[in-house]
Amino acid sequence: MKKRVNNKISFRIAMIVGIVVTLAMLLLFAVVNLNLSMELTNRVKRDMNLIAKDRSQIIETYIEGCVEMIDAYARTPEIREVLKSGRDPEAIRRARSFTEGFAEAYDHMEGLYVAEWDTYVLAHINPDSVDKTFRDAVSAAELEEQIRTNGHAFCTGIVRAPVTGKMVIPLYAPVCDESGRAIGFAGAAFYTDGLGERLRSVNDETADVEYSLINAADGTYIFDYDPDIVGSVCMDPVILDRLLGFHNGEYPDNVATFSDRMRAGSCYYMADRDWIFVVTDPGADTFDVVSRVRLSLIAIMVIVTLLMVVLCAYCVDRLTKPVVAINDEIRRLRRGDFSQPHSLDQYMSREDEFGAIAGAVADLHNALSDRNRLFREILKAQTVGTLVTDAITKDVILINDMALSMLGFSPGTEDYVTVERIFNRTDDEEGIRIHTIIDGIRRRDGEVTFVHPVHPDPETTRNLRIRARSIRLSDSDRVIIMTLTDADREDES
Fold first, then answer.
1. What is the DSSP string of 129-183?
2. Domain 382-492 class?
3. Is the per-residue pLDDT at 50 higher than 70?
């Protein structure tokens, strides 16, 4: 019983603490997880913004390098002389040889040439393109106007090459004579693959990202990590939404971030060229880190919760030892055991509630012990026999010496006496009669009186008058109190 009571209290308190701690840990986990996810996402966005701005400068530098190349080409004597020579075969030969040699120093070049204003090509790295006019008079005049207006080398944007079908960066530069008068132009085109390779070459372990460059005017991909979509129209709703925002002036700093469950990235608007440079982190590393941290956090909180519950149960078990001892003493008193309660001595000196309760139980023990002793002395002094039995189990609860003597038992044998031994000291018919009489009041309040012949020894018969009364105690137990007198002496008197 001791362990059961102790465990019951410990279990209840541990359960309450466990529920409270679990709720607290769940709240803490929700807050930490939210803040962690937001912080990691914001960090990725900040990194993406920095990468987008930094890598956009690489694009500008690359294009500026291409512009410087065509400008340098247009300033060479061989190119200037071929335009001044009036299509002299020797000048054309030197220009073509120079053009081929000049182009060998550059990768990803789609074309390099020099042409007259009507777009008649004098020299080209592609032999099939020389001695041809590639524009009609109207478009040639428009191109001439554009080149003269700029007055220096420039990039017109990124377009799809009509021959190869790939995205290229077209460049033009005026070719001037010694007086500075434009006498023709030089042109070149670089595949955007070279720009993509340049961007990918600067990736490292901390920025394993993917790049896209989109023409904001028509939404087509200039280049992308997936070469199959280059030249096609962007259909990504997130990027299209940012593109619309740039056109509407929603992002004054020309940077817009985005994120979802699978990726995070940044869009940088290159306003001078009307391009959108997109940097995307597929999120594998970032979201794996979040998942690992989240799992670690869950494991830590589960362990902390279990440790707190176990520690609480242990502490409660230690603290409730006085309750167990007090409970045992109360049970002993209920059983009528009034031996000295030594188990309470160690708690009675305490100045807390347990000490007060232990002292009260000790006082109750002393009071009940004194009353029990007084009651037994009074019972012994009685001149009538007294017998108390449990109405249900028929166990003998109390019997005095006078009753033992009347029933033919020796003094001190009360532990040996049972109801069956008392009423079986007669013939079977008489025993059945007496059991029937007593059974009539076992489960209800009532009183009966009957004469019971007993045989203290084989040669002696004594008639006892027994008055039996059934009562219910405060704990709902029912007992039968019997008083025994000598019927033979009563008749003689």
1. GTT-B-S-HHHHHHHHHHHHHH-S-EE---EE-TTT-SEEEEEEEEEE-TTS-EE
2. alpha beta
3. yes
Q: Which residue has the tokens 């019983």?
A: 1
Order of all β-strands in the sheet with 396-399: 396-399, 385-390, 478-486, 460-472, 446-457
| DSSP 8-state class, residue 111 | E
Residues 144, 157: Cα–Cα separation, whole Å: 17
- The DSSP code sequence of 410-449 is PTT-TTT--HHHHHTSS-HHHHHHHHHHHHTTTTSSEEEE
Structure tokens at 458: 């084989």
Q: Mean pLDDT, the chain, as a whole number? A: 82
**Burial label, 218 (beta-carbon count in 10 A; 0-12, 13-18, 19+):** exposed
CB 225 within 8 A of CB 208: no
Q: What is the 3-state secondary structure (H, E, C) of 200-267?
A: HHCCCCCCCCEEEEEECCCCEEEEECCHHHCCCECCCHHHHHHHHHHHCCCCCCCEEEEECCCCEEEE
What residue ranges do the domains of the chain occupy? Answer: 75-194, 382-492
Domains 75-194 and 382-492 share a fold: yes
d(CA 357, CA 66) in angstroms, rounded, equals 96
Three-state DSSP class for residue 409: coil
Domain spanning 75-194, CATH class: alpha beta
pLDDT tens-digit map of 5-29: 555 666 677 778 778 888 888 888 8
Give the pLDDT confidence score for residue 318 in this predicted structure. 75
- Reported residue count of the chain is 493
pLDDT of residue 146: 93
